[in-house]
Amino acid sequence: MKKELWWKTSVIYQIYPRSFQDSNGDGVGDLKGIIERLDYLQWLGIEAVWLSPIYPSPMADFGYDISDYQDIHPLFGSLADFDELLEAVHSRGMKLILDFVPNHTSDKHPWFLESRSSRDNPKRDWYIWQDAAEDGGLPNNWLGVFGGSAWEWDEVTGQYYYHGFLKEQPDLNWRNPEVREAMLNTLRFWLDRGVDGFRVDVIWHMIKDAQLRDNPVNPDYTEYMPTYDRLLPVYSTDQPEVHEVIREMRELMDSYEERMMVGEVYLPVHRLMTYYGVDNKGAHLPFNFQLISLPWDAAVIAAAIDEYEGALPTDGWPNWVLGNHDRPRIVSRIGTEQARVAAMLLLTLRGTPTMYYGDEIGMRDIPIPFDEVQDPQGLNMPEKNLSRDPCRTPMQWDDSNNAGFSSGKPWLRIDQRYVRNNVELQRNDPDSILSLYRKLIALRQREPSLVLGVYTPVFADQQMIVYLRTYDGSASFLVALNLSHRPAYFRPVEGQYLGVVVVSTNTELEGTRVSGSLSLAGDEAVVVRLDRED
Ligand code: GLC
Q1: Which ligand 1 atom sits closest to the C-alpha of 376?
Q2: SS3 state at 215
Q3: What residue ranges line ligand 1, CB within 6 angstroms?
Q4: How does residue 103 score in pLDDT terms, banded at 50, 70 and 90?
Q5: Of 99, 264, 360, 523, which is the active-site residue?
Q6: Has residue 144 been placed in a domain?
């Protein structure tokens, strides 16, 4: 395949380090554990690994509250372990992406401790401090994503500080040049060590309205939504000046060789696109969460793919995501059978795919009894079923004790069905979802059309999505997916789309010829290598 940038051709695999592999029996996954499992990822065909945060942290939000940006939390190991991991990743021809959390620090970070110590501390302005309103109330109506007001009163200095998430996660003031410099230095620290890229946490939150104006009420709010959705966060997020900051981060990346940034952005497509930046000098990949957010409906998804493809800036590289540590797992959203169809969609669309650990074996969300809930989002809004613990349970490796994850008591329950659903079993089963993932990834690696090729929509209705992937001089592929449980048909003009099924959710179809109409059973999907026309 033509030499292309790694972040365009690789499949990215997200590891939630707490839950991947524990090597020392404390019930929490760690870096040495990840090293032990790299051979598995290589076998699967993964070429880039993203780790959720591994830095020192009081763990109020499981590592997304960082108290030191330049070290490793002892739970996960040491800097020496990290260097070993990086070396082990690179020696397998893979890349390592770290999570970078620039919007907020932990309230235990030395910067915040200084900042809150007095009003005239030199770091006071590193965070967002405000006087009470004239009536003694909150500075404005902004809400925290995890519930309640986004303002926390500080008794000692008599001001409020702003936190878009937990009160233990005060927001940095990115309008302050010293903050920018200090944070860019933390990036340099990891870039110099050889890290290949960063997933940038809540990148669209980084700058807030300079006047701190009240957010308007959301007219579509219902009591079933998270309380945060009562308002439209038009002044607290997605401000124009954020793009200057992203550009600075990008310039830093570009001063090293082949490094990349993928930005976490939950916004409508037309806003999402602005995160590619002017002249594509923003985030290399602003995460595209459509497949996570939209209802699993063929017509809706087909339209969303077209909208996304059409909205991309020239030379903006697309990407697709099926799951992450904040959202319900794909199997729990659409069922075991459709999760296979989703795998085929993810791995045959145009753009870099990001997979979430365990989705390749069809792991599901596990009910966590209320007295075991750990996620602050779940604890703060107990009546809304928002806990993210169910999608963060330990990886199911084999049928031994604790699914091979740990010799100690796991920090979070393991799916009791692990005995029947684990990597080892599925590895040896050609019909398993794991085998399907592996085949699809291998096919992508062999076929330029599936990675670099053009995407052309062919047909969509209430059940099916059909599209073509073509690339000059290479074999073309027709992908047909049945997103329903009922049989579905696609009848092209006679003589069109003749070829052979190379991968299917139903292995019996592999190797069969397609000529004329294509009929798929419920939950079935095929990738067809088209006959050459010459
Ligand atoms: C992002 C992370 C999420 C975290 C939040 C606050 O959305 O993915 O896990 O809780 O940011 O840092």
Answers
A1: 10
A2: coil
A3: 61, 64, 101, 165, 201-202, 264, 325-326
A4: very high
A5: 264
A6: yes
Atom of ligand 1 nearest to the CA of 104: 12
DSSP β-bridge partners for residue 499: 514, 530
Q: What's the mean pLDDT when you consider all of the chain?
A: 97
Quick one: pLDDT at residue 534? 54
Report which protein residue has its CA nearest ligand 1's atom 4. Answer: 64
> Could you give the CA distance from residue 102 to residue 182 in angstroms, rounded to a whole number?
11
* pLDDT at 139 (0 to 100): 98
Q: Structural domain tally of the chain?
A: 2
d(CA 312, CA 346): 18
> Which of 162, 178, 193 delimits the end of a domain?
162
The letter for the amino acid at 304 is: A
Structural tokens at position 427: 């590895």
Q: How many CB atoms lie within 10 A of CB 156?
A: 9
Given 168, 171, 196, 201, the catalytic residue: 201
CB 334 within 8 A of CB 296: yes
Provide φ and ψ at 254, rounded to 5°.
Answer: -70, -15
Three-state DSSP class for 411? coil
| Cβ atoms of 438 and 43 closer than 8 Å | yes
Active site residue 99: no
Q: What is the DSSP letter of 132?
A: P
pLDDT at 516 (0 to 100)? 82
Residue 453 has pLDDT above 90, yes or no: yes
Q: Say whether 264 is catalytic.
A: yes
Domain assignment present for 459: yes
* Domain end position, chosen among 135, 162, 189: 162
Q: Which of 251, 473, 472, 433 is nearest to 344 (CA)?
A: 433
CATH code of the domain covering residue 137? 3.90.400.10
Structural domain of 147: 110-162
Is residue 139 a part of any domain in this protein? yes
C-alpha 138 to ligand 1 mean position (Å): 24
In a domain, 114, yes or no: yes
What is the chain's length?
534
Q: Which of 18, 88, 94, 22 has the alpha carbon at shortest distance from 53?
A: 18
pLDDT at 378: 94
d(CA 94, CA 441): 14
Residue 463's CATH number: 2.60.40.1180
Q: Which class for 532: exposed (0-12), middle (13-18), buried (19 or more C-beta within 10 A)?
A: exposed
